[in-house]
Design a protein that fits this description.
The protein is built from 4 helices and 14 strands. The strands form 4 sheets. Strands 1-6-7-12 form a 4-stranded antiparallel β-sheet, with no helix packed on it. Strands 3-2-4-5 form a 4-stranded mixed β-sheet, sandwiched between helices. A 4-stranded antiparallel β-sheet has the order 11-8-13-14, with no helix packed on it. The protein is 20% helix and 37% strand. The protein is of the alpha+beta class.
Length: 261
Amino acid sequence: MQSKYLLVATAIAVTFAARAAEPPCSARSGPRTTALVELYTSEGCDSCPAADHWLSSLFAQGFRPDQVVPLALHVDYWDYIGWKDPFAKGEFSVRQRRLAQMKRPVIVYTPQVLLQGRDFRRWSGGEFAEQVTRINSRLARARIALAIRAVAPEAIDAEFSAMLIDPAERKNAAVYLAAYENKLASEVAAGENRGKRLEHDFVVREWIGPIGFGESTKLEEKRALPLLPSKNPRHLGVAAFVQNRATSEVLQALMLPACAG
């Protein structure tokens, strides 16, 4: 009997040790593919607020983070109209154009939704849920782990690991890492949305990538993602995804909100 209790105690100790080894704020991707949803938007575009609201409402609609990873990338090519989007980055405009150049015809517009790296115009209807279900049914072609070690006013300290299931994909596969922020708002004073209060979630504030795999099928790195001072660290999070740079296919995606504490 004593040996039985000893075995149970040992098993419990091993379990607690394994849990202690995991960072307190961490997440791992599952065996199925999570859909990456990229919204290219701008506060200077009068048709964008509806799409911003749609993206913000995805989890309220019943979608889960293991089903979709939503990211809002604000572009800067509408700034000339009279309102400079405070969340816009030129690199997001470049990314949108590069992804568009992989397809024919080449289409760049706002609001534009990319689902798994491909233009998806029927985002506001029931077909979005159907496509997400189809994507979720596929086995993931990569595994991702994320951890947030610290959140400071100037940066998020994050760690990630990514592993490819098929070694043949390492030539074109790359990891992208993004710091995002929720509960952002602007009182727009000029341009097409003049006089409106615009609210946003999942806004990408910092972007790192592409990070190639080189000759390996696995990547492990620590990165500091610089941020503008945030009013509430709980509104921050980190997302990572693995994408084929030649085809724009997304192999897997993962998001991790900053944990309380």
